[in-house]
Design a protein that fits this description.
The longest helix is centred in the last third of the chain and has 9 residues. Strands 1, 2, 3, 4, 5, 6, 7, 8, 11, 12, 14 and 17 form a twelve-stranded mixed sheet that branches. The chain is globular and about 55 Å long. It is mainly β. It has five helices and 20 strands.
């Protein structure tokens, strides 16, 4: 089932995920069916939380309270499907990607953070900062947490803590990442974490594929089953380090084929069963 955070276009669809002191229309949650968005009451992550014990196999259809309002999909602005407290990313989770950057395959999950301020929605521009001479795309599957968890063990059912899945572009200033050694600056610029366009509650991780297209040309393609560390293993590992709370985003790593972005490009991250995250690229001000 596909859900979205959205604003109807009868309101000014401004950048509501950053605080500017301006009054914006409240974001809404909806379910997408047949090119229409039906509004549901309350927050989706609350519906996926403690009261429902998590969604191991997606939400029961009869459990979603609807407002009775609906819009054509082309009459709403899709917002990022989560407002995370943190974005936890996995590095080098595909063998060929580790090799293409000259890195060894990790023996344990390699995690780092992107700031929530880096999040943008589908169709919003990725801004290349003047401080960097090499900014890369990195298409990935993202997992959105639906229920707080900490110190999960081998016997814990990880699916109970997952609200759903979406597409993510782990945009990276590669030259700054190499210069700094650690990842914070190279991964943390504003607009460096496009996510969306929807939250999909049901995904076959054994058969789904992640692909990235640059100006219509396929640059990355891999089965999610090729990940070194599975989604379950990643969430268990992260939960041993930090408590995950509803809305948190986990980026599961990118396959080989990463490459540079330039102003004027259009980059698309596609995950089969979810959809396409599309973003234009623009140059930042000097």
């Amino acid at each position: 089932m596909k859900f979205c955070r959205f604003q109807p276009l009868e309101f000014a669809a401004l950048d509501i995920h950053r605080s500017t002191g301006l009054l914006h229309a409240e974001p809404r949650w909806g379910v997408i069916e047949k090119e229409r968005v039906r509004e549901i009451q309350g927050g989706l992550l609350e519906l996926a939380g403690e009261s429902h014990g998590g969604w191991a196999e997606g939400p029961p259809r009869g459990s979603l309270p609807e407002s009775g309002r609906a819009w054509p999909l082309n009459e709403v602005k899709l917002l990022p499907p989560s407002v995370p407290s943190k974005i936890v990313c996995l590095g080098r989770n595909y063998v060929e990607h580790a090799a293409e950057l000259g890195n060894a395959v990790p023996t344990n999950p390699l995690i780092f953070l992107k700031p929530p301020s880096s999040v943008i929605a589908a169709e919003e521009p990725i801004v290349i900062p003047p401080d960097s001479k090499r900014v890369d795309y990195e298409g990935e599957l993202a997992v959105i947490i639906g229920r707080a968890c900490s110190h999960l063990g081998p016997a814990d059912d990880v699916k109970r803590y997952i609200a759903g899945y979406t597409c993510l572009n782990d945009v990276t200033a590669r030259d700054l990442q190499k210069a700094d050694v650690q990842f914070t600056r190279g991964k943390g610029f504003d607009t460096f974490c496009p996510i969306g366009p929807v939250l999909e509650t049901e995904l076959d991780l054994a058969t789904a594929k992640v692909e990235t297209y640059l100006n219509g040309v396929r640059k990355q393609s891999a089965l999610l089953a090729e990940m070194i560390f599975s989604v379950d293993a990643i969430i268990r590992w992260i939960s041993r380090v930090m408590t995950l709370v509803p809305g948190d985003v986990i980026a599961t790593g990118t396959p080989s084929g990463v490459g540079p972005l330039t102003a004027g490009d259009v980059v698309e991250v596609m995950v089969s069963g979810i959809g396409t995250l599309r973003n234009p690229v623009v140059a930042g001000d000097e």
